[in-house]
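re: ur question from earlier - yeah i can do the single chain one, its not a big deal. heres the input i used so u can compare w yours
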Amino acid sequence: MGASTKALALSPVPSLPTHTSSTVSPPASSASRSGPPRVDGGYLHIIALGGLTWTRVQRFDTPKPLGGFGGGLRVGEAVLPWMTLGLQLVGSLGYGVHRGALQRVGQGALLIDIGVLPIPKIPLSFRFGLGVGGGAVREENVGGRSGYGGAAFSGAIRYEFFPRAYRYRPNRGGGWMIAPEIGWLGLPPAAKGRPMANTLYVGFVFGFYFGS
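and the output i got, formated as tokens:
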């Protein structure tokens, strides 16, 4: 009796299985959504565009839109999580044929560039511009040109992509970006019947946000 009691006392007590809590890392997409903002800090953007320009000038009849291409440069700062503010320099050339004669329009504008992001975490922005600009129309076999100019306005919508930014800048905002953009540039008439121009364009933007 005593020996059996001593044997039971010396026998090892079986250990109960323990459950260790493991931390499951969130998927990359969830981590990226909770990362730093991408539209952040100063920016430098280059835009290439193609579009149609409708003009009205004094010397030439321009009933058809003039199709062409152009480009621009934008610099500025993300002053708020939902707002950017900067400057934009843009220009374009357009060509068309009227009554067998080649017509050409050249124009440019310097604008204050304002961007609004309705949802700061989503890089979809509505852009507005105001400034000054001008242009001129020439026609084949006709000397001189007929121009327009004065106040200039713009509007656009853009969605920005930041390829691999969350890998190379996981803890810093900003980064390289590419974006499609659809927009309008208008130089309204100074009075009824005066020269004017409207351009509708599709553009591609390439640039960089330096982060804050």
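The chain has a mean pLDDT of 88. not sure if urs matches, ping me
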